[in-house]
Structures are given as structure tokens and as C-alpha cells.
Amino acid sequence: TKNDILLLSYLSAEPGANDPIESAVRFAAETDLEILKSRPNKHEVPGYKVTGFVPFNPNTKMSNATVVINETNEVFRVAKGAPQVIIKLVGGNDDAVHAVNTLAGRGLRALGVARTIPGDLETYELVGMITLLDPPRPDSAETIRRCNGYGVEVKMITGDQLIIAKEVAHRLGMSRVILDAGHLVDPDKSDEEITQHCERADGFAQVIPEHKYRVVELLQKRGLLVGMTGDGVNDAPALKKANVGIAVHGCTDAARSAADIVLLAPGLSTIVDGITTSRAIFQRMR
Fold it and tell me: Of which family is this protein a member (predicted)?
């Protein structure tokens, strides 16, 4: 049921993390589930005890919790993460794939939730999907348009699935030439070919953090000047490598120290202000 999904997602959500997805999941569960409303201790779920937790990792694209049911002492695990990862974990499910694609076509992100079957901590079964609406910021489309007007090409790099990336690109007024990140590390292609793909593409989907660095590296070898935005520890190498590393609002300390520019307010429109100001300074110097 809906309540089962919410409870299991809550158990596998990182407490106190200021991750927007985890916050959304926790808020939804706390708003809907009676069991979570009237509990004396906000850090416990009545009847359950979380004994182990592996936080979300951009490489595995999931988080994992080990939970004990207090009454029976039965132990089970819950995994929550990117739909393609969870569907693979449970050994495939065509209905789930279809549901995820249908949602993605409407611009909705899905999170898969799976739990282990009784008596076996290695075999998972699919519980269901949570849907999230993660729209681009209202100023993003305008920022991209202004950047293009200044001759700056914008590429989107996201961990989301290809179909969602295309939908978001469309909303932002970009072309839908989005490549799967697998193209960046394809052993059958020469660096030259990959660089061409990199230049032509409007973005990359299903990336892991190493791919960001790779994009910067390939474009720089072409003699292009590259600015890169990021917020996480994993983005730090790409921010450091880029000609201009831009740490966005709410970023981690690692990203902040690796970047050249740190944005203090949400949104990316400040980047365009930086371009106009620096061009004005350059013109005066000339």
C-alpha cells in the first residue's frame, strides 16, 4: 500500500540530511502516517529499530537500511534509489520500467523502494515507486538564454535518466541532444570521437561524478574555456579542473574550497552577471 512505501522509504531515508530528496520523503511520511505523528521520540519509529544505514552514494545511486522489527526480532533490509538501480536489484520488472518511463515523459522523477524477503537478507522484492516533481528553477531558462546570447554554450550534466533529462532540457529551451554518460567512457571510441560527441551534445544523463571531470578535460583539450557548476564533494575535482569552478548555493565545504566563485543565493542568474561585469572590466582595460 501507499503507507507501506512511505514507511519503508522513511526507514531508509537519512535522518538530518539536508538533501532535498530525503527531506521530501521524510516530510511526506511524517504528514501521512499515523504511526509517525504521535510518537514520543522524533528519532525513532515505533515498533522498528534501524540498526545499520548506508547513505546515498552517487556511484551506487541508492541508500540502504537494515531494520529490526521489535516484536518478532525479524531483520530485513530496505533499499531506496534510482529506479533503474532498484529494478536491477530485484532482478527486473517490466511493469516498473513502463511506469517509470510514463512518469518521466510527464517530467516526474521516480525513486524505487525495495525490501528483502523474509529470512533472506540478500534477495530483494520491489515494493513500489515514489514520484517526485523536481522542476528546474524559475530563472534557469532565462539564464541559459542570456548565456547563449553572450556566446556561452550551456550543457546540462545530470544523474537523472535520459528521458527526464530530455524533458527538462525541452522545458529550458535547450535542444534535446542528450547523451547517456556511457558515451564518455566507451572503450570502443577514440578520444577524438568522444570529444566530438561532447562538443555537440547539449547534455549528459545518468552520470556519475567522474564523468563531470571527463567532460571538462575533453573540452579543455579542444582549447575551449570551461566553467563548471557543482555542489557536492564529488564535484570538487571537476570544479578544480575547470577554468572557472562555480560552487552553487548550499554547497559542501569541499566544493567551496575547490571553486573560484561561490554563489551565496539560490539560482544561477548571478553567473551571467559575472560574465557581463568581467566583460565590462575587460573592455575598459582595452
Answer: Belongs to the cation transport ATPase (P-type) (TC 3.A.3) family. Type IIIA subfamily.
